[in-house]
Design goal:
Elements: H1 2-18, H2 22-34, E1 38-49, E2 54-65, E3 69-76, E4 81-85, E5 88-92, E6 100-105, H3 111-115, H4 117-121, H5 125-128, E7 129-139, E8 142-151, E9 160-166, E10 172-178, E11 184-194, E12 212-215
Parallel strand pairs: 6-12
Antiparallel strand pairs: 1-2, 1-11, 2-3, 3-4, 4-5, 5-6, 7-8, 8-9, 9-10, 10-11
Length: 219
């Protein structure tokens, strides 16, 4: 009888023991991200525009290496690339802006943070966002803790966001952002390789011939 009562007591307090504050979830996510020397991740993305009623889907591979190397290669649409070589951030999107490349300093105005999910969500989140819990869910067969984020100051990226943090690894496996115009972007990490082997060539970009380079540093 004592054992039955003890087991019942454990079951009764288990939900409380397992409950985690959004701040604690994000703190662990920050640490998990900081521990990554490099990462390779495959993703899928959907962008919904409530004004036009359009929904665009894409897929690709993201690679990152400390401290400021980033490469996003889209397989759908093929040829679109975003690359930070440590000095410059190159944005080449021939599917939507053919014939041009945007070049800017990777370190100016947090340019890298604008395109790197880790930089967006995991750079001092406690001071930048008001957080609230969003419950739990399963993504790709893995349990996730969901955290809602609202910027304390306008950041030009989103007005609200949700991140799905892997309960076992504390890595972000999905996120959703909505901007001031209602444009919604959902990105799901379909596979991830922490501390993956990457080379310097993965983070090099040479503008294609006959493509105009718009260099923001020149203005």
């Amino acid at each position: 009888m004592i054992k039955i009562l003890a087991a019942a007591a454990v079951l009764a307090i288990a939900p409380g023991v397992q409950a985690q504050s959004p701040e604690a979830i994000m703190e662990r996510a920050v640490k998990a991200y900081a521990d990554l020397r490099s990462v390779r991740a495959e993703f899928r993305q959907s962008i919904t525009n409530p004004i036009t009623g359009s929904n665009l889907s894409s897929r690709g591979v993201l690679m990152r290496k400390d401290p400021d190397l980033l490469s996003i290669n889209f397989t759908i649409p093929s040829g679109d690339r975003i690359v930070s070589d440590g000095q410059s951030l190159w944005i080449y999107l021939p599917s939507s802006a053919p014939g041009q490349v945007i070049k800017t300093s990777a370190k100016a105005n947090n340019a890298l943070g604008m395109v790197d999910p880790g930089g967006v969500f995991l750079s001092s989140p406690a001071s930048r966002y008001t957080m609230s819990g969003g419950g739990t869910a399963t993504v790709g067969g893995r349990k996730m803790n969901i955290v809602n984020l609202v910027p304390k100051k306008a950041n030009g990226i989103f007005s609200q966001a949700r991140v799905w943090v892997d309960a076992a690894t504390s890595l972000i496996r999905q996120f959703e952002v909505v901007d001031a115009n209602g444009l919604k972007r959902v990105v799901t990490i379909t596979s991830i390789q922490p501390n993956a082997s990457v080379s310097a060539n993965d983070f090099r970009f040479a503008p294609p011939k006959n493509v105009r380079v718009l260099d923001s540093a020149a203005y």
